[in-house]
Records
---
Amino acid sequence: MMRLERRHETSRAALVLAPIGAVVFTMAVSALLVLWAGAPVGRTYALLLQGGFGSVFAWSETLTRAIPLILTGLAATVAFKARLFNIGAEGQLYAGALAAVAVGGMHGGTGFELSPWLLFPLMMLAAAIAGALMLLGPALMKNRLGVDEVVTTLLINFIVLLGVSALLDGPMKDPSAMGWPQSVSLQSDLELGKLVAQTRVHTGLLWAVSLAVTVWAVFKYTVLGFDIRAVGANARAAAFAGVPVTRTVVMVALLSGALAGLAGAIEVAGRTSYVTLDMSPGYGYTGIVIAMLAGLHPLGVIAAGVFVAGVLVGADTMSRAVGVPTYIADVIVAASLIAVLVATLLTQYRVRFK
Amino acid sequence: MNTTTVLRLEGITKRFGSLVANDAISLDLQAGEVLALLGENGAGKSTLMSILFGHYVADEGSIEVFGAPLPPGNPKAALAAGVGMVHQHFTLADNLSVLDNVMMGTEPLWLPVSRRAAARTRLLDVAQRFGLPVQPDVQIGSLSVGERQRVEILKALYRGARILILDEPTAVLTPQESEALFATLAQMVAQGLSVIFISHKLGEVLRVSHRVAVLRGGKLVAEARTADTTQAQLALWMVGHAVEAPQRRPARSVGDAVCVLDHVSTVSDKDGGQDHSAGLREVSLTLRAGEITAIAGVSGNGQVALAELLSGTRRAISGTAQFMGRALPPSPARLVQRGVARIPEDRHAVGVVGDLPVWENAVSERLRSPVFSHWSWLVKRTATRLHARRIEKAFDVRGAGLMAPARSLSGGNMQKLILGRALLAPEQPEAAKGDDNRKHPNRAPRLIVAHQPTWGLDIGAVAYVQQQLIAARDAGAAVLLISDDLDEVLALGDRVAVMHGGRLGEARPATAWTREAIGLAMAGATAPRSKGAAT
Amino acid sequence: MTDLLDILANPAFWVAVLRIATPLILGTLGVLLCERAGVLNLGIEGIMVAGAFTGWLAVYAGAPLWVGVGVAALTGLVFGLLHAFLTVGLALSQHVSGLGITLLATALSYFGYRVSFPKVNTPPTITPFAPMDWLPIPILNAQTALTLFALLLVPIIGWVLYRTPLGLALRMVGENPQAAESQGVSVAATRTGAIVAGSALMGVAGSFLTLSAFNAFFFNMVNGRGWICVALVVFASWRPGKALVGALLFAFFDALQLRLQQSGDAMLPYQLYLMLPYLLSILALVLVARKASYPQALMKPYRKGER
C-alpha cells in the first residue's frame, strides 16, 4: 500500500531537477520503442538530437516550429492558472487563422483595400477576437451552469475543424489551387518577415517571446494577475477578498483564446500564407503539455516550447534516416507530461510503502 | 461496579513531523462506564481516538480490546473488535439512503445479492432498542443535523459495537437535543456498552461521565473519578494554570446605529417552509457603534447567511439593509472600502488563499484601492509589502515569513493575519476619493463582522482574538459576533439575540438572559416576536 | 418530410442506429463506473484508440475474434492501472492525468501501427464478427455479438451497482470516501478496481470499431466518440439505464444525419451534418447541468490520513 506524506521544505534544486529527471526517464522509456522498431537506440537518439539542435538549419527549423507551440503553451498556461481547463486551443488556433485570412486575404469580403499598416493590426485583432470568442461560450457555461469545460472545449474543436473544412470547400477556397482544399492567400505585404535570411524563422518568434514576457509581467505585477492566481487557487476565498470572479474568468477565457487565435494567425502570416486542414498537427494539445512541463510559468513556456519543437523536428529528420515512425515524438511528449507530473509531486510529497 | 477492562491503551505516541500529538499515553476503559476525554483544541484527543479507530497508526505503543491486541491502522479490524466511532464531522453520503449508509461495508463484498430486507429489519430493531427512531429509506440529504447524528450512532450500534467513541457530539446540538443524547448514553450503558466521550465542555463532562482523563499538550496529565472532581479542578488540569472567568467589560458608550437590517430575507417562505436552505427570514437587527451584538444559535440556522450578507457574498431578496445611512453595498470590495471588517468562519477555505504568499493575502481585500495599486491595475509592490509587514508586527503573526504560502501558517497565526488584514487600516499619504473614513480621525473600521472567530484556536489565541474585538468596540466600532459557543456569547456580548430557523429573536442585554432561556430560544421553543427596526 | 419518414421506416436505419450506439454504450458504461467511484477518466479517447488497435492487431496476427476483444480489454486495463496509480495512488489532477493518457495511448497506437506496417497505403483488413442471423429478433439479428454483449451489460451493471454490496461500496466511495474508509472499505482499492474495470470496457468499445463495425484500423477512427461518452454520462445522471437511452438517442441522430446527407439537397455542406453529433452533446450537457446530481466526491482527490 502506498501513502503520501507532505514534505516540510522543498529545495530549489529539487524544483529544477524534477522536470529534467522526468525527461530523462521518458527518454529511457521511449528507448524501448526504438528497439521495437528495430533501430539502434544510440544512433536514433543522436539523430533526433542532431535533427533538432545539431546545426544552424536544425535550430532554424526548431525555432520555426516553436513559435505556435509557445503561443498555444501560453494559452494553456493562462487558462490553467485560473483552473479553466481550455482543451480547445486547437479550434481556437484554426479560428484565428481563418479570421486572419478573412481580413488579410479577402479584405473581410468587402473588397475595400486598406493600407497594410492598418490591415495588419486589424488582422491580428480579428484573429485574437476569433480565438477568444471560441472559448467564451464554454467559460460562461462553466461559470453560470457548472458545465465541465473540458468536454465542451474538446467538442468545439471538432466543430471548428468541420467548419474550416466547409469554408475551405466553399467561400474561402483558393480558386487557383487546382482543387486542393486551401484558403485564399494572405496579401504578400502582410506576411511576416524572416528573422534570419534563408531560413523559415520569421518575426513571429519575436511576437511569441514578447507575449510570453507580457503574460509573465501580468501575472507578477498586475491586479489582474493576482485575480487570476487567486481564482485558480481558491475561488471562494478570492470572492471573499473582493476578487470579481466571473469577470476574471471571462478575462482569462478571452486572453487564453486570443493567444491561441494569434498562434493561428502568426502561422499563416509567417509560415504558410494560407489555411489548410492540416496546418496544425495538434499544436493546441501539445500546448497543454508544454504548459505543464513549464509548471505554468510563462517564461518556462519558451524553454519548454523550444524543447518540444526540437523533439518534433528531430523526429522528422531521424525518421527519414532510420525509419523509426515520427509518432515516437508524440510518445515522448505525452510520456514526459506524465513523468513531470509525478516528479513535481515527489518534490512536495514523500511516498511511503507499507 | 463491574471492573473488567474492555480497552487498554499503552504508551501511545504519535508524531506529525516535529509535533508530538500524543506522548506516551496510557489509558484504560472499564466495562459499562463512560470515560470522558477532556482537553482543549489541539491537546491530542482526536488524534488518540483516530489511532484507536485505525485512521492513523501510532509510532509507539499498543492497544488491547477485550484482552486481544488490536491490529493498527485498520478501521475494519477496529470494527470487528467491537469499537465504533461517531465522528465529529459526520461521515454520511447525502445522496444515499439511511439504510444504504448503515449497511455499507457490513456484508461480504463479493455477495451476488445484497440482503436488504434482513438489514432493514435489523436496523429497525437496533433503533428501537436504543431509542433512536429512523426511517430507513429516506435520503440523508433531507435529514436534520440531530437526525444525522442518530444515523451516525446507529452505524456503530448496527455493527454490534461494544465500545463507542463519541467525538464532541454536542457541538452541533441544542441544549435540549444534548439532553436527549445523554439519555441515549444512559440507555447504551444500561445495555452493556462502554463509552469514550470526547469533549472540551466541562459542564457536560461532569454531567455524563464516570471517570475523566485530561489531555494537555499531547500528554495525559490527570485521571480521576468524576464524582471526586470539580469544574475548577478540571479547568486547571486542562489549561495548566488557574483560569479566571473572563471578566465582563461592559460597553462604555453606545453610539449611533451603524448598520440597520429591516425584515431582510435571503430565501422566501414559498418553498414550503422547509428549513433546509438555512437562509434569513425577515431578520431585523440594529448594530450600534461601541457595542458588541452577539448572535447565539446552533450552527445551521441562518448564521452563515447573515455573515455572508454582511460580508458581501450573499444578496437579500427582500427587506432593506443599510450601512452608515446608505444601502449596504453588495460586493466585498466596496464593503471593505466603506469600513466593514470581516472575519470569516472558515480560515482555510475562505479566509486566505492558501497557495498564495502571506503578503499577498495581507493586502488581498484592498488591492484595488489607490493605496495599493496604480489605477487599480498595477500593484504597488513597496506599499503592499510595507503594509504586510506592519500587520505581521502589530498582530504578532509568526510563521515562515511573508513570502511563504499562507497555508503554512498555524491556525492561530492565520487568524491573526486575518484580523490584522481586517482591522489595521493602511496608511494613506492623502485622503482617497469617495472614502467615508475620511471623516473619521483614526480610520478604524466602523463595523466588524466576526463569524466563529475563535473556533479551533488554543486558549492563548482565543484570548487574543477576544481582546481585539473588545478593543475595537472600545475604539468606537460596532461589532457583530456570531458564535455557537454559548460561553463566548455571554462573556463578550453586550446584547444577545438568538437565531433559529433563519429568524432572529429579540436582542436583549446579556444580563437579561438565562442559559435556560437561550437554550429554549436556540431550539425554537419560544417564538420570536415580530419586531420593527428598533431592536 | 417524406424523406424523413422514408428513412425511419427503413429497418436498415435502425440496424445502423444499434451499430453506432454499441461503442457509445460500452464507453459510457466504462466512464460511469469510474465516475461513480469518484474519478474522472479522460483517458477514454486514447484507450479506445489503443483498444481498437491492439484488438485488431491480435486478430490480424491470427487470434480468434473474442481473443482480440480480450486483448483490447487487457489494453484498457493496463492504461486504467496507470490512471489509477496517478490519480488514486499519487492524487494527481484527474484532468491532466486523463489527458496525458489519451495522448500517450493514441501516440503509442499510431507508432505501433506504423512500425508494424511501414509501407502500406490501404489499411490491411481482417474478417470481422459476423451478424447474429441465428437470432429470431429482427434488427438485432443484423448486429454482431458485441452489440448483444453491450446491451446485456446494461442491466448487469445496474444490478451490480444497486443490488450488491460491491456496488454499494463503489457508490459510497464516490459520495463520501471518509465514510467508506471508516466503515472498513478501502477507498484506494475500490477506486482502482472501478477505474480498471471501466477502462477495460473502454478498450472493448474501441475494439468494436475495428472488429465489428469496420474491419481495419484507420487513423482518426475514434474521432471524438470518447468525449461524447463523457458527455453522455452526465446526461444519463450516472445511471446505466439512462446511459443506454442516451447512447441510443445520440446514435439515432448520428445515423439520421448520415442518411439526410445522402438524400438531402446539396445546398447544405455535408460538414454541417457532421457537426450535429457534437452540437447535440453540448446541448445535452447544458440542459442537464442545472439538476445534475454529481457523485459528491467526484474529482476530489482522497488522501488517507489527511483530515
---
Amino acid sequence: MAETATYHHTEAEDPSNVTNPEHTSHHIVTPGQYTLVFVTLLILTAVTAAVAFVDLKWANPVIAVFIACLKATIVGLFFMHAKYQSRLIKLTICSGLFMFLSLIVMTLSDYISRSWGLW
Amino acid sequence: MSSAATIVSLPDQATARLPKRSYLNNEQGLLSWLLTGDHKRIAILYLISITFFFFIGGAFAGLIRLELLTPQPDLVAADTYNKFFTMHGIIMVFLFLVPSVPATIGNFLIPIMVGAKDLAFPKINLLSWYLYVVGGILILAALVLGGVDTGWTFTTPLSTHYLNTHVITAAMAIFVAGFSSIFTGLNFIVTIHRMRCPGMTWFRLPLFVWSNYAASLLMVLGTPVLAITLTLVLLERVFSIGVFDPTKGGDPLLFQHLFWFYSHPAVYIMILPGMGVISETISTFSRKRVFGYTAVAFSSVAIALFGFFVWAHHMFIMGISNYSALVFSLLTMLVAVPSAIKVFNWAFTMQKGSITFETPMLYSFGFLGLFTIGGLTGVFLASLGMDIHLTETYFIVAHFHFVMVGGMLMAFLAGIHFWWPKMTGRMYPESLSKLAAVTTFIGFILTFMPQFILGYLGMPRRYHAYPPEYQVLNVLSTAGATVLGVGYMLPLLYLGWSLKYGAIAGNNPWQATGLEWQIQSPPLTENFIETPIMDHEAYDYEWLEHKTKNEVTTVG
Amino acid sequence: MDNSVATTHSHTHETAVPVEHAHISLPQHRHHFETVEQQREAGSFGMWLFLLTEIMFFGGMFFSYLLYRNWYYDAFAVASNQLSIPLGTANTMILITSGFFMALAVWSAEVRKRKMLVWTLVLTVIFGIAFLCIKGDEWHIEWVHHHIPGAHYDIAEFVNPAAFGIHEQPLPPDMAQRTQIFFFLYFALTGMHALHMIIGVCLLFWLIWRARRGDFSAGYVAPVENFGLYWHFVDIIWLFLFPILYLINRHPLH
C-alpha cells in the first residue's frame, strides 16, 4: 500500500519533528525495576514513620518532607516514566513544580516578614 | 479591486457564491451542533453564549450608571447596588472577557493557523463549552434567586460569614467556568506544541498563536488556584470554621493571597489574546510584517511569566508587610515592560507601512491609545505611595476599564470584524461598522476618562452615593455609557444582518498572510484538503504577492 | 482486534542514516492526528498538563496548612497526635502497593498481555478501595471523638486531656479552638484526595471492563498509560499528606 506523503517528512520540511514524535524512545520499564522501586518506597515509608518518634526538634518536619519528596521523585521518574519521556514532558513537570514553589515561597515571604511563629 | 483608500479585495459579486461545502452546512440539525467536535462550530457556540452574557453584564453596567446619575442613593437600596456591581463584575470577567478571544477566535483559528485539522482533544473542547454553559446557568440561577453582593472579589470574611446572599451558587458557577477555561488552555498548549504542520517552526507561527499560547499557560497554571480558593470559601460558609475569620484565628489575607494569585494572571489571560489580534490586524492593515517578531513573541511569554509574580499589588493596603509590598511593587513595574515593548513594536510596524482604515484597524488604533493609557495608569498604581491614595477609588475602576474595555473589548471587536469574513464567508457593511467603532471610542472616553478624575479627587468605588461636587463628572460618565451602549448594539445588528445580506467575501478579502486566508471562507470541516507545508516566514507579504500574481480566484 | 501495519519504509534522520521503521495503524486513530504516535504523545502531554493543574489545585490547601501550622503549632501538634499512626502508615503502604500494580498494568498493556493487564488492574482497584475503607474508618473515629469541625466540635479533650486518658499537655481554650482549623484542613485535604481516589476507582472499573474486551492489548495503550499517570499522581499527593498530617510531633513530650 502506497504511503502518502502526508506525515512522512524530511528534516527540511519538518525541523520541529512534530509529526514523528515516535522518535522519542518508547522505553519499557521492566517489572523487576518496578519491584525494586516498590520495595524502596515501602522502606522509606517505614523510615519516615520511625524517625517521627525521635526528637530532632526542627529537623523532624524537614526530614519528613525531604523523604516525601524523595518518594514522590521516585514515583514520578519510574512509575510515571518521567525519566524516559521527551524533553517537553520533563520541562512541563519542572514548570509545574516551579509554579507550585512560587505560590508557596512568595506568599510565605509576606507572612514571614510580618507574622511568623506562634500567633 | 483595490484602491489607495482600502485594501479590501472581494470577488465579483455578480457571480460570487458561498462555497458549496463548508463547516456550516457539512452536517444539518441541532444535535450536529450540540454534539460537534469541530473546533469551528464550538467557536460559534461560544460566540453566541458569550454575546448573550455580555449583554446581561452590560445591562448591569447600565443600572450602575443610572444610579450614579444622582449623588443620592435614590434608585436602589445599598444591598441591591452591591448586587449590581457584583453581577456586572462576575459576568464580565468570568463569562465574557476570559473566554472572549481564546474560546471564540482562538478555537476557530488556532488549528488552522498551525496547519492542523482540529485541536488535539475535540471532545474536551466540547466539554469546555458545556462547562461554560453550566457555569453561566448557575450564575443566572444566583441572579434569579436574589443575587450576590460580595463584589466579584469575594473578599472574606464578608463573603464567608457576614452575608446571606447566594455566594455558594455564584462560587460554584465560577468554579465550573474555571474548568472550562483550563480545558481550553490545555487543548491549545498541546495543539501548538504537537500539531504544527511540517515547516511550521515556532518562529513562523502567527503572533496570535504565541499570545494565545502564553494565555493558555496562565489558564492552566493559575485557574486551579482559584478553584481551590472558591472551594475553601464554600467549605467555610458551610462549616464556619474560621479559616478566613480573624475572630476564630483565621487570616482574611490568606484568602486574598490565594484569590489574587489567580486573578492577577487572569487579567493577562484576558489581554494577551487581544494583543495577539492586534498583532494580526496592524500587520495586515499596514501591509508590513510585524516589527520585531521575536521581541513580540517573547514579550507575550514574559508577560505570562512575570504576571504570576505580581498579585499582591491588589493587597497593598490590606495588611501585607512593607517588605512584601516593596517586592511586589518592583515586580509590577517590571511586568509593564513587555507590554510597552509590544506597543512600541506595533507602532514601528505601522511606520512606513501603507496604512488603510478599515474597521478592524480603527478598533486597533483605539486599542493602542486606550490600552497605553490604561497600562500607564497601572504604573501609577504600582507605585506604593500613589496606590495608597488611589486604591479603592474610581481611579482603579477607570484603570481596569481602560485596559479591559478600551483594550481587550476593542481587540475582541477588531478580531471579530477581521475574521468575520473567514468565519461566515460574508462581509459586514463597512460604513456602518466604522460608525460603530467611532461611536464606541467616543462613548468609551466619555464614560471612563471622568472616572480617573473622580478617583483622584477621592470618590470611592462600590458606593452608590457620593458628595454632590462629584455629580458633573458622574453625569458625563453616564452619558458616555449610553453612547457606548449604542456602539455595542450596532455590531450585533449589522453582523446579524450580514449573515444573510453581506457581500460574499472570498478567500482573502484583506489580502492578508496566514494559513487561514489561503483556504475557503467559510472553511471546510477538515480545514485543509491536504496537509499544508509551511515554507515561508510569518507576515511574508512578498510571498503573498508572488502567489496571488499567479492565482486564479474562483469562489463556489 | 486487528493490528495492521500500514507500511514499512525508510527515512532520513539528521545523521542521514536510513532506518527501517514500522508505523502502526490502529482503529482508534483519530483523524486529526497524522500518526498514532502523535496521538499517543499528545494524549500523554495533555494528561501531564492536567496533573499540573492538580498540583496547583492542592497547592492552595498546602499553603493554608503551612501557614496555620506555623501560627498554631501547639494545637496542630496535639490534634495531629489524635490520628492513628498504624492506620496512616498502613494506608500509605496500601496506596503504594496499588500504585505498584498500576505500573505493572501499564507494562502488561505495553507487552500486550491481556490477562495480566486485567489482573493488575483488578488488584489496583482492590488496594484503592482498601485505602478508602481505612480512610472511612479513620473519619468515623474522628466523628466519634467529636473532631468533625462545625456544630458538633468539642474541645473538651484538648483542654483537659488527662480526663480522657490522653497523654498530651493541656491547651488553653483559645488554642484548643485552633485544633478545629487542623481538623478542617485535615478533612479538606484528605477529603479532596479521597474524591480524586473515588473518581479514579470509577475510571478503573471502566478500564477493567474495556481491558477484558481486549481493547488495550493490541497496541492501544494510551488510556491505561494516562490513567496510570493520574493514579500515581494521587498517590504522590498522599505521600505528602501522610507526613505533614500524621507526623507533626510524635516524639514523646517532655
